[in-house]
């Protein structure tokens, strides 16, 4: 008889679990619209019960709000202008750079 070994599960902190779930939502958001991301799919990918997801996010809408909020933060970080980078030719300098105090 062969003994089957199961992967060891690591207990996560509440904040770490929330980050994991939002991360899964963000990854899914790259391939489908938010309304097609199901709680069941997120929970399955996280390896948790659907009901546990609702422990971290009281409603499906609360989960969606956090995923969209995280996506917005990522977009803002990705499009932030580096003030040390020169403007491309033909672009007017920003008003911040030309304003005199």
TrEMBL record:
Record feature DNA-binding region, as residue ranges: 38-57
UniProt xrefs under Gene3D superfamilies: Tetracycline Repressor, domain 2 (1.10.357.10)
Region annotation (Disordered) ranges: 80-101
Protein name, per record: TetR/AcrR family transcriptional regulator
Record's keyword terms, sorted: DNA-binding
InterPro entries named among the record's database cross-references: Homeodomain-like_sf (IPR009057), HTH-type_TetR-like_transc_reg (IPR050109), HTH_TetR (IPR001647)
Domain HTH tetR-type residues, every copy: 15-75
Pfam families: TetR_N
PANTHER family per the UniProt record, alphabetical: HTH-TYPE TRANSCRIPTIONAL REGULATOR RUTR (PTHR30055), TRANSCRIPTIONAL REGULATORY PROTEIN (PROBABLY TETR-FAMILY)-RELATED (PTHR30055:SF174)
